Amino acid sequence: MNTFQTALITGGNGNLGRLVAQQLSVKGIDVLCLDLPETEVKNETFYKNIFLGDVCDQDLVNRILKDQRPQAIFHLASLLSGSSETDLERAWQINATASINLIQAAKDCEVGLFFYASTIATYGSKTKDPLPEDFMQWPENMYGVTKVAVERFGSYLKKTCGFDFRCLRFPMVLSPFAPLSAKTAYPSHACRAAVLGDPFNFPVSKETGMSCMFLDDVIRSIFEISHAPQVCLKSHAYNLHGFHFTAQQLCENLKQVYPGFEYSFEIDPHVENLVKGWPNEVISNSAKLDWNWAPEYNFETSISVMLDLLSQGPV
Ligand SMILES: NC(=O)c1ccc[n+]([C@@H]2O[C@H](COP(=O)([O-])OP(=O)(O)OC[C@H]3O[C@@H](n4cnc5c(N)ncnc54)[C@H](O)[C@@H]3O)[C@@H](O)[C@H]2O)c1
């Protein structure tokens, strides 16, 4: 079993980062956070130290690595797909250049393990469904382009000098913390609207759906791959999949719990095309074989836990 006692999480105040921090911290690991000054610090108690700054600030990154000596890095800071498309230059700066510099700095500072969060958006729209694990990655948006670039660099260092680069490609994550700006996260936003008693407009057609995973499985997968023996991890990146559902199935499920839930379908062609291009099922046999990965949540249990969490108050 791989062990580390100190970990740095970039993007530690984000949707996934705050929960990865919690999971590591309860296991006794000292967790450091790097995120932008304008972010709301959540789960403060799980961090030993919080650094507010930009991951593109190489001096700051070098200082953190040299002074704090983290034994593992969980690199989650990123512009997501919508913001990447609206500012291509910034997307390249943060998602590609800063990420590659961070990997290089981690290697130079002898950080033992580097976890990187990638995405099935690295495959583009002309995929097979179910998506085979060895399918060519030809992304069609900037977000996917930058993610492939970083995967390749990490994989290169893993092959050439044994750098412990570990990467998961997530499908859409169903989460009560999904940023409102993430348009493709409409299933998470629909759950929130149902709980609040707000009407919801689906930006896709009724039959549209995609491969999806529940947040708790995502966080557990990050924890488990980071604790798997390095020798077992034969791939530089692993595809993960939880379940598939259509917008209509989600509406029916939400209606059962909240009969007054009002919804409509007003297609946003950009979101519809993006989601339609993603596979409904992603083969993830290597994750099972190499580090014994299995998701615990299906569509029904994910929605039920989502609604419970959302009804407990603002998240
Ligand atoms: N949520 C999903 O559906 C999903 C799917 C696949 C992959 N991922 C990947 O997982 C990671 C985490 O995603 P998330 O859902 O938590 O997103 P998020 O937007 O909630 O969190 C990202 C965090 O990165 C921070 N950040 C952005 N630019 C930064 C910069 N220049 N310097 C420092 N911090 C910066 C943001 O402030 C934010 O707190 C990302 O790399 C994302 O690409 C997420």
Helical amount among residues, as a percent range? Answer: 40-55%
Query: What profile does the largest beta sheet have?
Result: 7 strands, parallel
Structural class: alpha/beta
Name the CATH homologous superfamily of the largest domain: NAD(P)-binding Rossmann-like Domain
> In total, how many beta strands?
12
List bound small molecules.
Answer: nicotinamide-adenine-dinucleotide
How would you characterize this protein structure?
With 315 residues, the chain is of the alpha/beta class. The protein is 42% helix and 17% strand. It contains eleven helices and twelve strands. A seven-stranded parallel beta sheet has the order 3-2-1-4-5-6-10, sandwiched between helices. A three-stranded mixed beta sheet has the order 7-9-11. Helix 6 (186-196) packs across helix 11 (299-311). The protein is globular, with a radius of gyration of 19 Å. Bound molecules: nicotinamide-adenine-dinucleotide.
Give a short synopsis of this structure.
The chain is an alpha/beta fold. The chain contains 11 helices and 12 strands. The radius of gyration is 19 Å and the shape is globular.
Q: What is the topology?
A:
Blueprint: E1 6-10, H1 17-26, E2 30-35, E3 49-52, H2 58-68, E4 72-75, H3 81-86, H4 88-108, E5 113-119, H5 142-161, E6 165-170, E7 172-174, H6 186-196, E8 200-202, E9 209-214, H7 215-227, E10 238-239, E11 243-246, H8 247-257, E12 263-265, H9 269-277, H10 285-291, H11 299-311
Parallel strand pairs: 1-2, 1-4, 2-3, 4-5, 5-6, 6-10, 7-9, 8-12
Antiparallel strand pairs: 9-11
Helix pairs in contact: 1-7, 2-4, 4-5, 6-8, 6-11
